[in-house]
UniProtKB/TrEMBL annotation:
Belongs to the NifU family. GO terms for biological process: iron-sulfur cluster assembly. PANTHER family: IRON-SULFUR CLUSTER ASSEMBLY ENZYME NIFU HOMOLOG. Residues 10-128 form the NIF system FeS cluster assembly NifU N-terminal domain. This is Nitrogen fixation protein NifU. GO terms for molecular function: iron ion binding; iron-sulfur cluster binding. CDD domains: IscU_like. Pfam families: NifU_N (PF01592). InterPro entries: NIF_FeS_clus_asmbl_NifU_N (IPR002871).
């Protein structure tokens, strides 16, 4: 099966984010942090955020996992930096739509994360792609105040 030029571009962007992740590391002054695990495949992700006056002013992730999981986390950090909590939570929902094969309203806001739309063809990989986004959602909390601690994502 030959890859189209667009598929090759998507693959290249995903590999670039996986091999050269953006904002991977630890925040010295995180206001909230969380760790989620995908027990199905063993992926683990830690997300740390600095939220000041309802704005995500810094974000880092760390962990271990497959190419999709690590690329998605890197793409997520690009998409949410300097966004309000509400904007970031909207992007979580938009990304969930993307990996389920639906067209999001704010496609441009997702940036490179749109490259993971093809995951919808592989249902077993959806959890890999959404792990960091679920961590972000839990870290921000439904009221936007965030949580500290460790949770397991099933």
């Amino acid at each position: 099966m030959a890859l189209t030029k667009l598929d090759q571009l998507y693959r290249a962007v995903i590999l670039d984010h996986s091999q050269h992740p953006r904002r991977r590391g630890v925040l010295d002054k995180a206001t909230t942090q969380i760790e989620l695990k995908n027990p199905t495949c063993g992926d683990v992700i830690q997300v740390q955020l600095t939220v000041e006056e309802d704005k995500i002013t810094d974000v880092r992730f760390d962990g271990s996992g497959c190419t999709i999981s690590m690329a998605s986390a890197s793409m997520m950090t690009d998409a949410i930096l300097n966004k309000s909590v509400d904007e970031a939570l909207t992007l979580v929902n938009e990304f969930s739509e993307v990996v389920q094969g639906n067209k999001p309203e704010h496609e441009q806001e997702l940036g490179d994360a749109m490259m993971l739309a093809g995951v919808s063809k592989f249902p077993a990989r959806i959890k890999c792609a959404t792990l960091s986004w679920k961590a972000l959602e839990k870290a921000l909390g439904s009221d936007g105040t965030g949580v500290d601690g460790q949770l397991t994502h099933d």
